[in-house]
Amino acid sequence: MAHISDRIHADEQLPVELSADGEHDFGDARRIGDVAKEFGVSLRTLRFYEDKGLLDPERVGSMRLYHRRDLSRLRLILLGRKVGFSLREVKQLMDLYDPSGTNLRQMKAVVERSTRQLGRLEKQRAELDSAISALQDVITTTREKLSALANSKPN
């Protein structure tokens, strides 16, 4: 079997082997297209996150390989976006991660920023509820006027 070894990080390697059918076997790593499909994002989105320093997939030639760490980071990015954090805020929170520590700073920042974001979302929800109520009133009133007009016309 042919082996290609490329550095993932300074202390870890990923062996790439050819399978029986001649295809590359990347172990637990996933190609960009597979990751895009699994997470429902475009290839362009993944490349954009990489350009912004949010993701750092391994490169084997021109191919990007995503490992568990990359997939975890992508989940956090997408969760952050879902709850309304900017990419800058997501990156700031992820940059606080210290694999050798307790991550106390990161956890405090997550609680503080999440609490602030929750307040913003609750305010938006109240505004949306008010807009929905106003639209329901418009629809009801307009339907009543339409019905009155239809009933007042001679046949």
From TrEMBL:
Alphabetically list the UniProt keywords: Coiled coil, DNA-binding
Q: What CDD domains has UniProt attached to this entry?
A: HTH_GnyR
InterPro entries referenced in this protein's UniProt entry, alphabetically: DNA-bd_dom_put_sf, MerR-type_HTH_dom, MerR_fam
Q: Which GO terms describe its molecular function?
A: DNA binding; DNA-binding transcription factor activity
Coiled-coil segments on the chain, per record: 104-138
UniProt cross-references to SUPFAM superfamilies, sorted A to Z: Putative DNA-binding domain
Specify the HTH merR-type domain's residue ranges: 31-96
Listed Gene3D superfamilies: 1.10.1660.10
The answer, when asked if Coiled coil is one of the entry's keywords, is: yes
What's the superkingdom here?
Answer: Bacteria
> What is the name listed in the Swiss-Prot or TrEMBL entry for this protein?
MerR family DNA-binding transcriptional regulator
Annotated source species: Tianweitania sediminis
Recite the lineage of the species: Bacteria, Pseudomonadati, Pseudomonadota, Alphaproteobacteria, Hyphomicrobiales
